[in-house]
From TrEMBL:
Gene3D superfamilies on file: P-loop containing nucleotide triphosphate hydrolases (3.40.50.300)
MF terms in GO: ATP binding; ATP hydrolysis activity
Biased composition (Basic residues): 192-206
Chain positions covered by the region annotation Disordered: 191-224
PROSITE patterns hit by this protein: ABC_TRANSPORTER_1, ABC_TRANSPORTER_2
Residues of the ABC transporter domain: 4-174, 269-477
UniProt keyword annotations, A-Z: ATP-binding, Nucleotide-binding
Name under which the protein is recorded: ABC transporter, ATP-binding protein
Length: 506
């Protein structure tokens, strides 16, 4: 039995279309992944299905009660992951016929992500899952509703199959566009040659006598006119060539060491014998951690184990933590809602950025906040768009040490990849908490586990050049390469050390 039927739904916000839908259907046992860019209307569609948003046109048929778990809710003293877990468990316990979950894996640690996947896989009602979590979508979703360029379309199949098909479609579109551009240029060149030849024919040969020039004028005009008509036809064909829109591609973003405040000292972060509590709960006991310049360290551990509290301790300069005097911190944290609602997106970025305007726009575009967002008020952004803006204001700041607490939560897939690319090319130092396993694998040069009230580095090398030395050496080499007064002997020495570190690490 079809429990959910949507057809030709149109949603308008402030007089502007937000999205439309093709025919979308789902029934008991379906697990529908709802995917698309931040601000495209996924949460709004969920509100329409749940009946809390009735301001739309089109057909909506919902044949059973709906329970919806929103993505952001008051935490009542719990961590973000604990709050979401509590609300998801409460919803599942009610055994609803239709369940809508909005970003349920956000903030969940690895163990609870595994539990969530298993629980949703055994859910026997109709599940609608709004998520950017690639692993969760692949494990759970049996079909997808994808919003692209303002239209929701149904795709029957797994998330991996959808991604493969989309990549192939994008590649085909790019090839078709490039072929059309090449043909267009050929036709334009041919038209230009025809026009130039028409001009020469009309002028005649310089060696012609006045009588010959006069007698041949009519014939020359006829031939020139024919060539110009041919040129016009070729130009018209060239204009008709491009029927495929140019596929969107994001330019890569590469910062260099001189974009950031200079770093001095062997360690940027030095934690020694740190003991932390939250209330009466012991989190860390005499824990130690050192981070060298240029490292990208992932901090992992169960929900509530103290990852965010550790970042807070670093920011507050806790007695047992030491930051290098040259450290300039950029801090992104969970549930950050400090952006003023009455400022525009561009005003926020202008206040935050240490980059020039062109590169600031380039970074924004890579994360999906392009020119159409510049004059938009912060208060009018979706939750995911606000997270992007909050994160971007930190990434472009005059910081050389980024402390990022769950930066991947609520980001759409293109923004996730843009963030990974940005951090991999970032010449500063990063300590981050992220439960997105794919993201961690892409970004981290080292992983530290918060386990049994200790900070454990499972890959720490005992001899030779430590693995964590390599980012520092590369960072120092990049910095010296940009210094016209750098000692060439020092550069040669650094190259040898980098080669030794690379050999040591396989």
């Amino acid at each position: 039995m079809t429990q959910l039927y949507l057809n030709d739904i149109t949603k308008t916000v402030a007089g502007q279309p937000l999205f439309t839908t093709t025919q979308l259907t789902a029934q008991t046992g379906d697990r529908v992944g709802i995917v698309g860019a931040n601000g495209a209307g996924k949460t709004t569609l969920a509100q329409i299905i749940a009946g809390t948003d009735r301001d739309f046109t089109g057909q909506r048929q919902v044949a059973a009660p709906v329970i919806r778990v929103a993505q952001i809710a008051p935490t009542q003293g719990q961590s973000g992951g604990q709050s979401m877990l509590t609300r998801v468990r409460r919803a599942l316990a009610q055994r609803p016929e239709i369940l809508i979950l909005d970003e349920p894996s956000a903030n969940l640690d690895d163990n609870h992500q595994a539990w969530l996947s298993q629980a949703l896989g055994h859910f026997d009602g109709l599940l609608l899952l709004i998520s950017h979590d690639r692993d969760l979508l692949q494990r759970v979703a049996t079909k997808l509703w994808v919003v692209d360029q303002g239209t929701f379309t149904q795709y029957n199949g797994t998330f991996a199959a959808y991604q493969t098909a989309k990549q192939q479609r994008d590649a085909n579109d790019l090839t078709q566009y490039q072929n059309q551009q090449n043909e267009r240029r050929k036709l334009q060149l041919a038209a230009q040659k025809k026009r130039e030849k028409a001009h020469r024919v009309r002028k005649g040969n310089r060696k012609m006598s006045a009588a010959e020039r006069s007698n041949s004028r009519t014939l020359r005009e006829q031939n020139a006119g024919r060539l110009e008509r041919n040129a016009h036809d070729l130009a018209a064909r060239a204009a008709q060539q491009v029927t495929t829109a140019k596929p969107h591609t994001s330019a890569g973003i590469k910062l260099v060491a001189t974009d950031l405040p200079p770093v001095t000292g062997k360690y940027l972060v030095n934690v020694s014998d740190l003991t932390l509590k939250r209330g009466k709960h012991q989190l860390l006991t005499k824990a130690s951690l050192r981070i060298r310049p240029g490292e990208r360290v992932a901090l992992t551990g169960p929900n509530g184990s103290g990852k965010s509290t550790l970042l807070d301790a670093l920011l507050a300069h806790h007695a047992q933590t030491h930051l290098a005097a040259s450290a300039r911190i950029g801090y992104f944290y969970q549930d950050m809602t400090a952006l003023p609602a009455d400022l525009t997106v561009w005003q926020v970025m202008q206040k935050a950025t240490a980059l020039d305007a062109d590169r600031t726009r380039q970074v924004m575009g890579a994360f999906g906040l392009d020119a159409k967002f510049y004059d938009r008020l912060v208060g009018d952004l979706s939750g995911g768009e606000q997270v992007k803006l909050q994160l971007l204001s930190i990434l472009v700041s005059a910081s050389n040490l980024l402390l990022l607490d769950e930066p991947t939560n609520y980001l759409d897939l293109p923004a996730l990849q843009a963030l990974a690319d940005y951090l991999v090319g970032y010449p500063g130092t990063v300590l981050f908490v992220a439960h997105d396993q794919t993201f961690r694998q892409q970004v981290a040069t080292r992983t530290v586990q918060l386990t049994d009230q200790q900070l454990i580095d499972p890959q720490q090398t005992a001899q030779g050049v430590p693995a964590s030395d390599l980012p520092r050496l590369q960072f120092e080499y990049d910095r010296l390469m940009l210094d016209p007064t750098a000692d060439t002997a020092k550069l040669r020495e650094l190259r040898k050390k980098i080669a030794a570190a690379q050999h040591e690490n396989g």
